[in-house]
Amino acid sequence: MNAWIGSALALLGLVLGGLLMGWQGVLFAATVVVFWLLLQMSRLLRLMKQAGAAPLGQVSNAVMLASQLHAGMKLVDLITLTGSLGQAQGTDAYRWHDAAGDAVEVVLRKGKLAEWRLVRATAPAPAP
């Protein structure tokens, strides 16, 4: 959800609670907003714990990962797809690889996916 929309909904809830039920309505609306924020924080911490336990920069299939990416994805969505944290390749650039040697390199701008490319493993030379 967009941050502006979430803030507007929280403010609307506080105002409506105050108009309809007085200070008890404001208190109730504030409780709902804090509960929502705690749910979001819990979700993020669970995701980071799971991703931190996985091998760094490893995915099951880099080709499938590359096919699921699209511009504008948030970093949280990217970590959810990969299941692990990426290997840092520089400022806002990360890399995930699979067992076959294929890799996906992504570039983030302002926390959103801007560019990505699939790097295929070189095929071994045929035996003579």
From TrEMBL:
Alphabetically ordered keywords of this record: Membrane, Transmembrane, Transmembrane helix
Top-level taxonomic group: Bacteria
Name by which UniProt lists this protein: Glycerate kinase
Lineage: Bacteria, Pseudomonadati, Pseudomonadota, Betaproteobacteria, Burkholderiales
Source species of the chain: Pelomonas baiyunensis
Transmembrane segments: 6-39
